[in-house]
Write a structure and sequence with these properties.
By secondary structure, the chain is an alpha/beta fold. It has a domain at about 20-65 and about 175-274: Purple Acid Phosphatase, chain A, domain 2, CATH 3.60.21. The chain has helices spanning about 5-10, 45-60, 80-95, 105-115, 130-135, 145-160, 165-170, 200-205, 245, and strands spanning about 20-25, 35, 70, 100, 175-180, 180-185, 220, 230-235, 235-240, 250-255, 260-265. A six-stranded mixed beta sheet has the order 1-11-10-2-3-4. A five-stranded mixed beta sheet has the order 5-6-7-9-8, with no helix packed on it. The longest helix has 18 residues, at about 45-60.
Amino acid sequence: MSLGPLRKVGEALGRGGRPAQAAPGLGGVAGQLVYAVGDIHGRYDLLRQLLSSIAVDAADRARGRAPILIFCGDYIDRGPQSAQVLEALIWLRRRTDIAVHALRGNHEQALLDFLADPERGAPWLDFGGGETLGSYGVTPPDQGADLASLVAARDQLLQRMPAAHLRLIESLELMLVIGDHAFVHAGVRPGTALLDQAEDDLLWIRQGFIDFPGPFEKIIVHGHSWREDRPVLLDHRVGLDTGAYQTGVLTAVRFEDGERAVLQARGPAGLQSS
């Protein structure tokens, strides 16, 4: 694949441009310039567009700081371009002028589970895994396929997936703390210290977290749960997922000390592979 458009985006970081629309926010990020991105789900088209907006915004605000770019998981599945998204993240992590952190989502964990045990991990195919297989040129097994078919699909995926993609998925972080904010994929279990959070909750939690009025130990920045094409901006949590694979809207939020701003990429809705 060509990374020409992303290469131009990366080169634009640090140069002038127009800022995003800002809104008041709470909490600090230790003087850093931080951008957190919601669930991409195979929408490489939206990722390219959003990175371009981030580049312009960061160029206007960096003032000598290296921007921190945090991806909050669920890069793959549902949308048609999972392989391209992973390749873009690999390229971004090689850059030295930005600090890139990629968190693990439940969909990346489901892929790893399928690779480790195709029979036990087969449910992944029913909630987006088929699209990821297709992005690598692998025909997904039929629903209810036997073990031999599942193993064959797993083996074909391993043959066609670049080793760097698998290393990326295996190396994803579960949590990142910057200043007053903790960045995770799904959320945290209320009443449990951040250092004691269970991996399953960080990857999968919804109820018990999104309906909790707060406060938490830190302001929790997360993806995973969405209802509309606008992010959730509360004093105790920030929900970044705007259902990109279905709504055609991919969201990032810029964090500076005491301030938040929303940046969005918009494209065709419901763009899923057949």
